[in-house]
Design goal:
Elements: H1 12-26, H2 34-38, H3 61-69, E1 75-84, H4 94-101, H5 119-122, E2 129-138, E3 142-148, E4 153-159, E5 162-167, E6 172-177, H6 193-200, E7 208-218, E8 221-230, E9 237-245, E10 251-258, E11 266-274, E12 292-295, H7 296-301, H8 320-323, E13 327-332, E14 339-343, H9 363-371, E15 372-377, E16 380-386, E17 391-395, E18 399-403, H10 407-417
Length: about 425
């Protein structure tokens, strides 16, 4: 791909602002908060549970949702397996780096920019690939999530007023204060079936079919299967299935399948679970002797120091266009067909530019180019970037349309907004 040229009369400073604006737009091509877009509103369609194994009393979808809402489970521990397949190309780990960089928090640009133990960078790894976690909770003030890797472990512990992140590979510690009354340790990134289910079931209307699709056993527990499907055409979401513990009402497994078929986009479920009170020592943490400790308030004030020559998102000094954020964010459509629209305030990706090196952004340019389809409409021209769930249209004049919808739906939204 040839570099994207600015106007001949554009100054160096203005050119940097335009490039910063394009990098800002690029952040929204790959979804980090997957369920933030996929969680459309839900309407109730009462249905009786089919016969299955195990044999459980029949319930309606409304009764099962009520059981979930009334669940008072505050104590549990277990092992969760998460598989995420957005259909991104294999770039040797670049996709994980991009997702970490798009977190927006301290250290979001990677280990070189902040603490390797910063949760804003580490837990976004769950947005790609397969991961095993150990989880534990004892009420709203004590939670622990440990991400198990081949030869290392990352743990995030919330205990009272403190939140600790520890990366055993780098021997780094991240510490911050938890806002009172919040489950800060798992607040921003879904890590358990309950987290995913709560995000997907936030509101109710008539855009969705909700039924009970039989029964199942998950981690040795009897469960009902709650099946959520879009009624609207044009969504990339096929169905969401939540396995709900028959006794406690706690979600044990969450599966999101795409309308295109194939493997699940998100499959998160307990392989082992206990509802007994975890030992109090589970949530104790003291920084190991010699470990590097970064305080959250210090990291927030520290400048981001990108690697030399690295122009990827979240690295380097942002230009004015990037610092200004999104202009006029609005939502087009409703339910599963909701599309987020905003103006980056800068030129987008000119037609024909998606096939090569994107404005000197190296691997990022190749990554975006591998996902892009050039499109034209009444709005002009632009590029649609695709995953198996979330698609985004970036127009040549810098406007962005993104949602869990098809390419045609994005073009129609851009045309209507023209």
């Amino acid at each position: 791909m040839a570099p994207i040229d600015t106007d001949d009369n554009t100054t160096a400073g203005e050119g940097e602002e335009l490039r910063a604006g394009r990098r800002r737009a690029a952040r929204y091509v790959v979804p980090v908060a997957v369920m933030g877009v996929a969680a459309a509103t839900i309407g109730l369609v009462p249905a009786l549970a089919d016969s299955g194994d195990p044999d459980l009393p029949k319930v309606t979808a409304e009764q099962l949702l009520q059981k979930m809402a009334e669940s008072d489970t505050e104590q549990l521990s277990g092992t969760v397996r998460i598989n995420t397949d957005l259909g991104l190309p294999d770039l040797g780990g670049l996709e994980s780096g991009l997702m970490s960089g798009m977190s927006g928090g301290p250290g979001g640009g990677g280990k070189e920019d902040g603490s390797a133990a910063d949760p804003s960078a580490r837990l976004t790894e769950l947005a790609s690939g397969s991961h095993t976690l150990r989880v534990a909770a004892d009420g709203p003030d004590k939670q622990k999530v440990s991400l198990l890797e081949d030869a290392a472990e990352y743990s995030l512990i919330h205990n009272g007023k403190d939140v600790w992140g520890y990366d055993s590979e780098s021997d780094e510690v991240y510490h911050s204060a938890a806002p009172e009354g919040t489950e800060q340790s798992r607040k921003d990134v879904p890590a358990t079936p309950k987290d995913f289910a709560e995000e997907a079931l936030k509101s109710v209307d008539d855009t969705t079919s909700v039924t009970v699709g039989g029964t199942a056993q998950v981690a040795g527990r009897d469960a009902y299967r709650l099946v959520v499907e879009p009624k609207q055409e044009g969504s990339t979401v096929g169905a969401i299935t939540v396995a709900v513990d028959a006794e406690t009402g706690t979600p044990l497994k969450f599966t999101l399948t795409p309308a295109s078929g194939g493997a699940a986009v998100v499959d998160a479920g307990f392989t082992k679970v206990s509802f007994d009170k975890p030992d109090a020592s589970t949530f104790d943490f003291t920084p190991p002797e010699g470990a590097k400790v970064t305080e959250g308030d210090e990291a927030a004030k520290a400048p981001e120091h990108g690697r030399k020559g690295d122009r990827g998102p979240g690295r380097g000094t942002p230009g004015k266009a990037e610092a200004s954020g999104m202009e006029g964010m609005k939502v087009i459509g409703e339910g599963w067909n909701s599309i987020a629209a905003f103006d980056t305030g800068a030129k987008g990706l000119p037609a024909g530019a998606a096939g090569g090196d994107l404005d000197g952004m190296g691997d990022l340019g190749g990554f975006l180019g591998s996902l892009g389809d050039q499109v034209k409409g009444d709005f002009g021209s632009g590029t649609v970037f695709k995953t198996r769930l979330v698609n985004a249209l970036i127009t040549d004049d810098g406007k962005v349309y993104a949602g869990a919808v098809t390419k045609d739906a994005l073009v129609k939204a851009a045309d209507a907004a023209k």
